Amino acid sequence: MQYLSTRDKSLRLSAAEAITMGLSRDGGLFTPVAFPNLGTLDLKTLCGMDYQRRAAYIMGKYLEQFCPEDLEQFSRNAYGPETFDHPGVAPLRKVDGNTWCLELWHGPTSAFKDLALQMLPQLLSYSLKKTGEEKTACILVATSGDTGKAAMEGFANVPQTKILVFYPENGVSEIQKLQMVTQEGDNVGVCAVKGNFDDAQNAVKRIFSDEVLRKDLEEKGYFLSSANSINWGRILPQIVYYISAYCDLLNTGEFKLGQKVNFCVPTGNFGNILACYYARKMGLPVGKLICASNCNDVLTDFIRTGIYDRNRPFHTTISPSMDILISSNLERLLFDLSEWDDGLVRDCMQQLNETGRYEINGEMKTRLQSLFYGGFCGERETETAITEVYRQYGYLVDTHTAVAARVLTDYRRETGDDTPAIFASTASPFKFCDSVLNAIGRTPEADSLDRIAQLQEISGVTAPVRLAALRGKEVRFKEVTEKAGMENIVRAFLQ
C-alpha cells in the first residue's frame, strides 16, 4: 500500500518511507491511498486472537511490505507482560448495562500513548532498514503531557535514533513532568518551553520545514522525524484498540456481530478519535463518533458550525493533555471529507496559519455532522463526573476520562440515542492525583508523589508500579527555553 500527502495527492510513498519521514516536506500528513475492508470473517477471526496477534493482523493490512512474522514479533515486544500490566493490554470494563470503558493506560507510562509509542520505534527501525537510510533519525516531539514520556520510553537507547521532547513549562501535571525530566537513556533530551502546547507544536512544525536546518543536520548525519500523531506510525497502532474492543464486546456474548456501538473519545489533537474514524472506514460497526473536549472547545465548535477558529482564550485545565487549540490531525479528516481535495486542504491550512480560522463548505459540514458529535466539559463538570462515576460505580477515573464520561452523558440526554457505547479512558487516575483527590472530597498531600500513596489508600486501587517508583529518581533535565530558541536547543542536542 502507498501513502500520499494531504497537501499533494500526487506524492506516493511506501509505508516505510512515510513512517521514516513522519511529516511530508510540503507540511502535509501522510494518509493511505485506500482503507482495507474489515469483513465479517476478519472480525470472527480476530475474536479468537489475543491483543498481540490482533495488532499484527490489522497493521499487516496497511504494511504489506512488512514481513508478517516480523509484525507479530514487534507486537509481542510492544505489548508483552513485561511492558503492559494487564493481559488484555487494552481491556474493556463494564460500567453499566449499556456502557463500557476502554482502558488504554496499562502501559509503562500509564497513558494511552503507550499503545502507539511502544510500537512506533520498532516500525521506524524496520523502516530505516527497508529504505536503506544510514543517517540517524532525530525525533522531535511537542507534548501536552503524555506523548513526551511515552515516546522517550519507547525510543530510549533504540539504535540509529535520538529523541528530543519539548513540553509547556506550566502546562503539564507534576507527575507528567517528573516522568519526563527523570527519563533514562543515552539518546534522550527534554526541554521546557515558555508558552503552551500550541506554541511548542507550531515551533516544531516550523523546524521541520526549515530547509537550512535540514541541510545542516544532513551534513552531520541526521534527519528529522516525528513521534507525534502526525506520524502515520502513531495513528496505525491506535486503530487496533478500537477493533479489539469491539471483538471483546462480541466475546462477552452480550453483543451480536454487526451491532453498532458508539465511541466517545477525549481528544485535543484529534489523533485518537481519528483512529476510531479510520476503524469505521474499514467496516467496524461504529455508530456515532463522539468527540469530547475540555473547555478548550475548538473541536466542539468546529463540528457544530463547520468553522475552525483558534482565536479564543487558551485555558490551562486539570485535563492538560487536551489543552490544545490547533488540532493537527484534523487535516487528515479534512482531506478525507473533501474526497482528496489537496488544494482545499492547503487553502484551509494557509488560512489557519495566517488568520487562525477556516470554514468548510456545506457538503463537508453535512458529512462531518452525520459522523461526529462534538461536546465539551468545563472544569467543574469534570470534577463532578469524577465524583459521580466513583460514587455510583466505585470506578476511579482521571480528568480526561471524566470529560469523555460527561460528554457521553450529555450526548445521550440531548439526542435520546441509547446505542451501546464505549468511552475511552486515556490515562491512569494516579497521573492526576491532586484533581482526583479533590473531586472525591479529599485534601491532597503537599508532595505530588505522596498523593499517589494517599489515593491508593483511600480508593483501594493499586497504583501503577512505575508511577510509584518515581520517588528518588534523579532529575536529569532542567533546561527551559523561549519558543523562539527551540531551534538552538535542537542544534545543541545534535552536536
Q: Can you lay out the helices and strands and say which pair or pack?
A:
Layout: E1 2-5, E2 8-14, H1 15-21, E3 30-32, H2 40-47, H3 51-60, H4 68-79, E4 92-96, E5 99-103, H5 114-117, H6 120-131, E6 136-142, H7 147-155, E7 161-168, H8 174-181, E8 188-194, H9 197-208, H10 211-219, E9 222-226, H11 232-251, E10 261-266, H12 271-281, E11 286-293, H13 298-305, E12 307-309, H14 330-337, H15 342-355, E13 357-359, H16 362-371, E14 372-376, H17 379-393, H18 399-415, E15 421-425, H19 433-439, H20 448-459, H21 465-468, E16 480-482, H22 486-493
Parallel strand pairs: 5-15, 6-7, 6-9, 7-8, 8-16, 10-11, 10-15, 11-14
Antiparallel strand pairs: 1-2, 1-3, 4-5, 12-13
Helix pairs in contact: 1-6, 2-11, 3-4, 3-11, 11-12, 17-18, 17-19, 19-20
Walk me through what this model shows.
With 495 residues, the protein is of the alpha/beta class. The chain is built from 22 helices and 16 strands. A six-stranded mixed beta sheet has the order 4-5-15-10-11-14, sandwiched between helices. Helix 1 packs across helix 6, helix 17 crosses helix 19 (433-439) and helix 19 packs across helix 20. The chain is globular and about 60 Å long.
